[in-house]
Inverse folding.
């Protein structure tokens, strides 16, 4: 399975030291360069993000989402299409509505909260 992730979920997972969870659950995880730039502003120390560097992929074609979504979200939606990904992990409601209206299958805030609960052992079966 291939997923493309936006900044919000990655920051949440990094803050509880479980950035690897998306890859464990879904397989291949990719992020566009704009998401990398956004996440490095919020997360320190950088060694937490070391594994994400291999996930960075540039958006190579025109971005139809530029101007209607914020930078990281727009690039993530575009990269989803370029990679023919299975899911886009995005927690901004407006951006998710735009993505879904354009045929993109999203994993959003509710799913991200469940993943976080699993990581911090609120649910004993994880």
């Amino acid at each position: 399975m291939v997923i493309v992730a936006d900044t919000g979920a990655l920051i949440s997972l990094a803050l509880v030291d479980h950035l690897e969870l998306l890859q464990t659950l879904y397989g291949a995880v990719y992020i566009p360069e704009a998401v990398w730039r956004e996440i490095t502003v919020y997360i320190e120390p950088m060694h937490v993000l070391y594994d994400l560097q291999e996930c960075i992929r540039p958006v190579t074609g025109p971005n139809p989402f530029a101007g209607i979504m914020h930078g990281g979200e727009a690039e993530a939606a575009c990269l989803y299409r370029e990679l023919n990904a299975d899911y886009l992990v995005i927690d901004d409601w407006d951006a998710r509505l735009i993505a879904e209206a354009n045929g993109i299958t999203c994993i959003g805030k509710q799913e991200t909260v469940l993943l976080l609960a699993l990581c911090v052992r609120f649910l004993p079966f994880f």
User: Anything to note?
Assistant: The two ends are 20 Å apart (CA to CA).
